[in-house]
Amino acid sequence: MPLFTPTEITDNYMSASVGKAASPAWRLFVLGVAAGLLIGLGAVTSSTAAHALDNAGLVRLVSGLIFPMGLIMVVLLGTELFTGNALMVTAALDGRISWGRLARNWAVVYVGNLVGAVALAALMAFFGQLNIGGGDLAVYTAKVAASKDALPWGNAFVLGIFCNLMVCIAVYLGNAAQDAAGRMMGLYVPVMGFVLAGFEHCVANMYYIPAGIFAYLNPAYTQMIVDAGINTAVLDFGTFVTANLVPVTLGNIVGGVLVGVVMYACHGTKKAKKAEGKAAKA
Fold this sequence. Notes:
CATH superfamily: Glycerol uptake facilitator protein
Radius of gyration: 20 Å
CATH topology: Glycerol uptake facilitator protein
CATH class: Mainly Alpha
């Protein structure tokens, strides 16, 4: 089947954004919870596959090959993901939705994503999934969380920018295809790339870091995590929010909005074409 052109993708997404902006808050929240859960499941499965590997490059490769299933499920099931919704800026720029409606969507979806991902993290940590490898998965989960919380603020911000550049490019590529296989492939490759590169995704981190905190708080794993030499001082929710979630979220917004602004500016929309036609006749 033929691909949609970049102009068609931009216009299709702006049209879809009108519906997203008008959606009731309860629906946005429920779909946001679902998306947080689905992205979290991508993190669960990739961590499980990679936790026993010693080579850092191989860990990233295996994680990158598996993690994209989360975004694929999010898009094909029509759920609401904060990072992808950064592209709704195109509809605001075109005057199809108000900036207030854009902010409303982002806020409700963000909270929903957080609820879904953190709830999944608690269930994994306290109901046995981290027992895999005799608790080695719990130690790995805490190690990942501590490493993310220990990132310098500026590093987390910049890694967040590049992450959502790739996520929003993935959304564009996924929307280029008109069949399920093509959409999945378009979504898969850039997301695999951001995981391989070690970029930071705020919704994924809503699972990764709370899961590590909960693992440390679970008496079954606490001593194992301490014995592994992990910096447990950063495994708390205050550090999670201030040291990682805030800078990564801001970076994700910048990266996603940048993709939206560039695509809107460089690829004519239907509204822009009408304006150009009127100017030409004049």
